[in-house]
Design brief:
alpha+beta, five-stranded mixed sheet
Length: 212
């Protein structure tokens, strides 16, 4: 849905498909408000008008199994579809299908000498464990698909000192460690989707509490 929106996340007034976007947005709002494991009935009628008459069907919607997509269909006619990239839009009410169990999140950030990358003791540090891990952090990790992204990213040869971020996520499936070299440069000079995803999660963790 984000491709319909402007830079501020709003629906442009001149958008020809504005009514459709608001219709799909209302579906997103209903699904992300309802209990995660259930299908929900959206509180408005079908948009179709077969034969010039309003379709009397109601809209049923739910999270698609195994994905972040939202699936919807009319109870009577064949209208329906999939909604993706709805996360963090103005209709996102925070509901998710099934969030991962995360035990501990450790985030370190700062400047390091490029010839001494083993010494990270001087980096600022955020460590969150158990119930202290806010739900919005778990949602950010889930939405941005970081648990399967263990690796080092960015260019370790650019800059001295280097900007370095390290994110370690201990979860039910194991431990995921992500290293980011020059995150700011990555955001400004590349259009890689992963750099944007990682940046969103780092910012969410930074805002969760004071760095120590």
């Amino acid at each position: 849905m984000t491709h319909f929106l402007d830079a501020q996340g709003n629906v442009p007034k001149q958008l020809t498909s504005r009514r459709l976007v608001q219709y799909l947005g209302a579906i997103v709002a209903n699904v992300t408000t309802a209990p995660a494991q259930s299908s929900c009935t959206v509180d408005f009628k079908c948009r179709r008008r077969p034969g010039g008459k309003s379709c009397p069907g109601t809209i049923l919607a739910a999270f698609e199994a195994g994905t972040n997509n939202i699936t919807w269909h009319c109870s009577i006619c064949e209208d329906g579809g999939l909604i993706h990239h709805w996360q963090r839009t103005l209709w996102d009410k925070g509901g998710r299908p099934e969030l991962p169990k995360i035990h501990r999140v450790t985030y370190r950030h700062g400047l390091v000498d490029d010839d001494d990358l083993e010494d990270l003791t001087g980096l600022e540090r955020v460590e969150l464990e158990g119930d202290v891990i806010a739900r919005n952090i778990v949602v950010a990790i889930y939405d941005n698909q970081l648990l399967e992204a263990a690796d080092d990213y960015g260019d370790a040869l650019v800059g001295d000192p280097l900007e370095y971020d390290e994110l370690t996520i201990e979860h039910a499936g194991g431990t995921t460690r992500i290293g980011l070299f020059n995150r700011g440069i990555m955001i400004l000079t590349t259009n890689e989707e992963f750099s944007k995803r990682a940046h969103r999660v780092c910012e969410t963790i930074e805002q969760a509490g004071k760095v120590t």
